[in-house]
Fold:
Amino acid sequence: MAKPKHDYDSPDFYKLIEQLAMNGYTDEEIANEMNLSREVFGCMKNGNYENWTDDENERRGGQITNVLAHGRTKIIALLRGAYIKGAFGGKKTKSKVVKYVQDKCECMGADKKCPHCGGTGWVTLTDKAVIQESEMELPPNLQAIATLLYHHDPTWRKMEKKQDDEDALYSENGIDIDKWMTDNTNE
Structure:
């Protein structure tokens, strides 16, 4: 029998799987990183790997599933946090523009083989660069806020569904919504 590629009872084996899952790797990519085929890793995870006993399949398969779920839970929480921060806005972004000062070359562009300007007549003075830095605060992302509210606030969801139902009703009956809104706001 061939020597196994990993020590399947080692905590390091499961830590590696968790770390890869936390970095956003798919099962196939994890298998590839661990020098296993996708099919073998899938069998291990599902507890039906032919080179393991029933007890090993149950124990190791469950542990692989748990560390995958744990690692992916961490990355989802980080992504959700970044999404929420983006929705609120206020994130500061910095940009830097470096402008170099140009001066006329001694040859004034007459020498097409000039080592300083290459025949352009202009020399860039890198020691006299002007650095322009700016900082901008991002505004709130209203679409992200609406999405978050829809998925996490039942009152908002009811309000959105009611609006969608009304829009569908009026469009089915051939009612011009803009005209209807104008007519009904004066009541």
Notes: The longest strand covers residues 122-137. The mean pLDDT is 86. Residues 92-137 form one domain.
